[in-house]
Amino acid sequence: MEVFSLKGKVAVVTGALGLLGKEHCRALADAGAHVAVADLDESACREVARSLPTDSVGLRLDVTDMSSVRGLLDDILHRFGGVDVLVNNAAVDDKFETPALARDMSRFEQYPLEQWQRIMDVNVTGVFLCSQVIGSQMAKQGAGSIINIGSTYGIVGPDQRIYRDRSGEQVFFKSPAYPASKGAVIALTKFLASYWGEAGVRVNTLSFGGVENGQDPAFIDNYARKTLLGRMAHPSDYRGAVVFLAADAARYMTGANLVIDGGWTAI
Known about the structure:
Elements: E1 10-14, H1 19-30, E2 34-39, H2 42-51, E3 57-60, H3 66-80, E4 85-88, H4 99-105, H5 113-141, E5 144-151, H6 177-196, E6 201-208, H7 217-226, H8 239-246, E7 257-260
Parallel strand pairs: 1-2, 1-4, 2-3, 4-5, 5-6, 6-7
Helix pairs in contact: 1-8, 3-5, 5-6
């Protein structure tokens, strides 16, 4: 089982305060890694880092700001001397103030440009900047693993029917920006894998299905019926895959898209 060990490795998780971000941090630390818990709220990041079983650190990071990303790398190098794993987890999705606005503004015909740009800035440019800065350091070291977090919606189009309530009324539409951003992440992964392969840096996408997190019961039922396993994911369902891609167990894997979605995209 040594090939799954991350003992002595240094891992960065962006968007680390989110539901899955915390799970990624815990999984990597449980496997032995020192984790840089990175998100906008530095105090909360430090709290998460203190809860981990390894010597870890909480750092503020704005993935859309080059100076912030460079500052993060400097802090990590000063503390740990290198970096081995980057989990590009930071992402945003659509949020609308009221149900009525959600239904109307999520329509493609009326979707706001500023919303499109915000999602692209975080979900795509953020992955670009973090990969450019931290991946360059990995290339200098001659080894590293970048794990880009994708989505089933980067592979297949949204089924708008699951966003209907029990009466059949469309509550909102899955809008274009998030799927487009995750498709871009998969393409960027392939570019980076081909670019840095000879430098020893592996780059893979980990595409998740939906996670149950207090959504409307009608949505949960609608989603579950679309999966072969008959349920949404639990937050802990992705821990093993993150460790696998980070560790030597996946040393011959790069440029790939590892899909874990309960069978959503299988049919």
